[in-house]
UniProtKB/TrEMBL annotation:
UniProt KW Kinase keyword: no
Family: Belongs to the triosephosphate isomerase family.
CDD domains tied to this protein: TIM
Subunit structure, as described in the record: Homodimer.
One example GO MF annotation: triose-phosphate isomerase activity
Annotated source species: Adlercreutzia shanghongiae
Catalytic activity as recorded in UniProt: D-glyceraldehyde 3-phosphate = dihydroxyacetone phosphate
Enzyme class name: isomerase
NCBIfam families: tim
Location(s) in or outside the cell: Cytoplasm
Residues reported to bind substrate: 10-12, 178, 218, 239-240
Name of protein: Triosephosphate isomerase
Gene that specifies this protein: tpiA
The entry's keywords: Cytoplasm, Gluconeogenesis, Glycolysis, Isomerase
Cytoplasm found in the keyword field: yes
Length: 256
């Protein structure tokens, strides 16, 4: 089965509304419409920028999706500071990142939290981009395949084939995020293939073949082509390079 690449920009905690609109306009103006036949593109700005960025893409009638960077699984209530799935759905988000290593490491998000968020998103027909990845100490210990596949199993707990088919996994080695130290294509492929094999064990070959597995970690316009050339890498989750229109647009082009 041929999978369409997905390039998703994670803007993290960057860009005021005014800055976000300028960046969204530049992306919208410069991404050629026929590229979007070959690659799916999404940007994930901070919550407050979601609606303005979505409006830019709607105004330009460009098929670039908008996603949130996090969400809470409860439908509503006394959860100060949290944002619900209905809220991001209402402003047109079709993706949501969950379990980013910054959320796991800085904000204490657990595998159980990731699972609850991913399941609730799937139920609402919003695609979770489920982030997994090992730290440098786990990589150096040589146990990274066990570590990452355990994260994948935990994220999928309680899901069936149909649920899993609505997810995206992003392999993001923590040692490569924001460090400029990218995994080699071979390193990234080894883990992405193991993720797909795990999905096959859990949900069967058909779901696994259709599952998009992204690589994230210092992907840029210089290294994207080689990473995206690997058999089990179906796109990228892009941090720093997604904040620069030139870089992001070039990565999208490489993914066509
Ligand atoms: C990320 O945070 O998801 C990411 C991949 O960041 P960067 O590209 O900056 O390493």
């Amino acid at each position: 089965m041929s999978r369409k690449n997905l390039i998703a920009g994670n803007w993290k905690m960057n860009n005021t509304v005014a800055e976000a609109v300028v960046l969204a306009q530049e992306i919208s103006n410069r991404i050629e419409r026929d590229w979007l036949e070959l690659v799916d593109v999404a940007v994930c700005p901070p919550y407050v920028d979601l609606k303005p960025v979505k409006s830019v893409f709607e105004f330009d009638r460009v098929d670039i999706a908008v996603g949130a960077q996090n969400v809470y699984w409860e439908p509503k209530g006394a959860f100060t500071g949290e944002i619900s799935i209905a809220m991001i759905d209402n402003i047109g988000c079709t993706y949501c990142i969950v379990g980013h290593s910054e959320r796991r490491n800085l904000f204490g998000e657990t595998n159980e939290d990731v699972n609850l968020k991913a399941r609730a998103l799937v139920e609402a027909d919003i695609t979770p981009i489920i982030c997994v990845g090992e730290s440098l100490s786990v990589r150096d210990a040589g146990t990274y395949l066990d570590f990452v596949t355990a994260q994948v199993r935990a994220a999928y707990a309680g899901m069936d084939e149909a649920d899993a088919a609505k997810t995206v996994i992003a392999y993001e080695p923590v040692w490569a995020i924001g460090t400029g130290r990218t995994a080699t294509p071979e390193q990234a492929e080894e883990v992405c293939a193991a993720i797909r094999a795990t999905a096959s064990e859990l949900f069967g070959a058909e779901v696994a073949e259709g599952l998009r597995v992204l690589y994230g970690g210092s992907m840029n316009e210089g290294n994207a082509a080689l990473l995206l050339g690997e058999a089990d890498i179906d796109g990228g989750l892009i941090g720093g390079a997604a904040l620069k229109a030139d870089s992001f647009i070039q990565i999208v082009k490489e993914a066509c």
